[in-house]
UniProtKB/TrEMBL annotation:
Organism: Actinocorallia aurantiaca
Known function: Required for the transposition of the insertion element.
Family affiliation: Belongs to the transposase mutator family.
Protein name: Mutator family transposase
InterPro entries named in the record: Transposase_mutator
Any coiled-coil regions, as ranges: none
PROSITE patterns: TRANSPOSASE_MUTATOR
Keyword list, A-Z: DNA recombination, DNA-binding, Transposable element, Transposition
Pfam families with a match to the protein in the record: Transposase_mut (PF00872)
Keyword DNA-binding applies: yes
């Protein structure tokens, strides 16, 4: 499973390398892009209208809710209709998953935050004399994200249910190699 933020060509690159991958669009990015086309005074009403789409129990229900959103908002903001229709095939895999999986795959924000911290550390250091020095810089940046180690316990609590749901959804592929 890969969660992407809509970067052009990423879907094709992932599926070309790993054909079994389920590619899911980042729900947070999709919503963010949606609100770009709408003046801020309409954000609360549009957010209220979109929530039943991305929290729907299945694709059929999401499509019904989406048609209501498109009917209500489409004439005023046709760009949001085009955005969602173009993203639909990468949006719907999300709906087939258990709620525990949905919680952890709805956004790429966590990994983007880690990437930003690594970039900042690398930029502050400048050129590296060798690969080992660069890897050490990245390692230290990652370790500084959780200096006390308490995040590991939080991670375990947050992911425990999701890992079980992933194992069921992907028919044991997650744990098959660990026995």
């Amino acid at each position: 499973m890969a969660v992407c933020d809509g970067l052009k060509g990423l879907l094709e690159a992932i599926n070309g390398t790993w054909p079994q991958t389920v590619v899911q669009t980042c729900i947070v990015h999709l919503l963010r892009h949606t609100f770009r086309y709408v003046p801020s005074q309409h954000w609360p009403k549009l957010a209220e209208a979109l929530k039943p789409v991305y929290t729907a129990p299945a694709e059929a229900a999401a499509l019904e809710r989406w048609c209501e959103v498109a009917d209500t908002w489409g004439s005023r903001y046709p760009a949001i209709v085009r955005l969602w229709e173009n993203a639909w095939s990468e949006f719907v895999p999300f709906l087939a998953f258990d709620i525990e999986i949905r919680k952890v795959i709805c956004s790429t924000n966590a990994i983007e935050s880690v990437n930003a911290r690594i970039r900042r550390a690398v930029r502050a250091r400048g050129p590296f004399p060798n690969e080992q020095a660069a890897l050490k810089c990245v390692y230290l940046a990652l370790m500084s994200l959780d200096p006390t180690g308490s995040g590991q316990a939080r991670w375990g609590r947050r992911w425990k249910h999701a890992l079980g749901a992933f194992d069921l959804a992907f028919d044991g592929r997650l744990t098959r190699h660990h026995h």
